[in-house]
Design goal:
- The protein has helices at residues 23-44, 46-49, 51-74, 79-95, 101-108, 110-125, 130-138, 143-153, 156-187, 195-211, 213-232, 248-265, 271-285.
- Helix content is 74%, strand content 0%.
Length: 289
């Protein structure tokens, strides 16, 4: 998929923590700390650390990693990182809700419910949060590019795709949350603060990390593809000669130029009618039906 040009990470001085780490290293740490560490701590740390200490450590280590990444390593604050940080804080707070049985199953599924509320309900009652995701994913680096992006995202076909993507992500999280609740309810049956409880939680974590994560990744891929396909459908085709011709911002600039030419050529039309005609003629000029 075509996209904006890559940014060069800022230099760091001696002893400073780099603000950007490689994607492969970041993914590896996410898997090791977020998925593997809790299972290992619960399985092998319960005996030496104690039941409650091991449970708290297993739950809070991934939370701490998310917050360290947000406030120390990346230090980037936008919708995506804020949502991740808020979700981590919620999970950390729920750690101290000492429950078992159905309440534990609900507690372990709370992050899926949060995602359903953030993505699904906002698409139904207001502006879908996928609009913010698209803006931050393409990262307009000048005020003019940001205005161009907003005009592109205001197109009816793009708005429809953004809403569909948000509903898809929300629905998938609701389904995953329901599945996670059932799995926890059936696998975690021991009373809280017992070695057996910790072992069962470790087992259910190992299962859900495999059973639920892969479908979630596939849904996200499809949802993002839906969003960006709608955006690129309103941009001109690649020239095929200039290596920069297919770069997103170049294509968006060409679209804006075409719309501006139409608006300036027909000064007798009202502003709204000129805007409509500009969009229609720009699409026609680029061979888009």
């Amino acid at each position: 998929m075509r996209g904006g040009s890559a940014r060069v990470p800022p230099d760091t001085g001696p002893g400073e923590i780099p603000r950007d780490m490689s994607k492969s290293l970041k993914l590896t740490l996410d898997i090791l700390i977020g998925a593997a560490a809790p299972v290992v701590i619960l399985k092998y740390g319960t005996a030496p650390l104690g039941t409650l200490t091991a449970y708290l450590a297993a739950a809070l280590v991934p939370v701490a990693w998310v917050l360290v990444d947000l406030f120390v390593i990346s230090r980037r604050f936008n919708f995506i990182t804020t949502y991740g940080g808020a979700s981590a804080i919620m999970r950390g707070a729920l750690t101290f809700w000492y429950v078992d049985g159905a309440l534990f199953a609900f507690k372990d599924s709370a992050s899926f419910l949060l995602a359903f509320l953030v993505f699904g309900l906002t698409a139904l009652v207001g502006t879908p949060v996928t609009r913010s995701v698209a803006l931050q994913g393409l990262d307009p680096d000048t005020p003019e590019r940001e205005r161009q992006m907003h005009r592109l995202l205001d197109e009816p076909s793009v708005q429809k795709a953004l809403k569909q993507a948000a509903l898809l992500i929300g629905a998938s999280n609701l389904a995953a949350g329901a599945a996670n609740y059932v799995i926890n309810l059936r696998m975690v049956t021991a009373p809280f603060n017992t070695p057996v409880f910790n072992d069962q939680v470790a087992n259910v974590n190992a299962v859900t990390r495999l059973v639920l994560v892969l479908p979630d990744m596939l849904v996200l891929f499809f949802a993002f593809q839906l969003m960006y396909k709608a955006m690129y459908a309103l941009l001109p085709a690649d020239e095929g000669t200039d290596p920069a011709a297919g770069e997103f911002w170049t294509l968006l600039s060409r679209r804006e130029d075409a719309m501006a030419r139409v608006r300036s050529a027909d000064t007798t039309l009202s502003a709204s009618a000129a805007e409509t005609m500009a969009r229609k003629q720009a699409r026609g000029e680029f061979g888009i039906s």
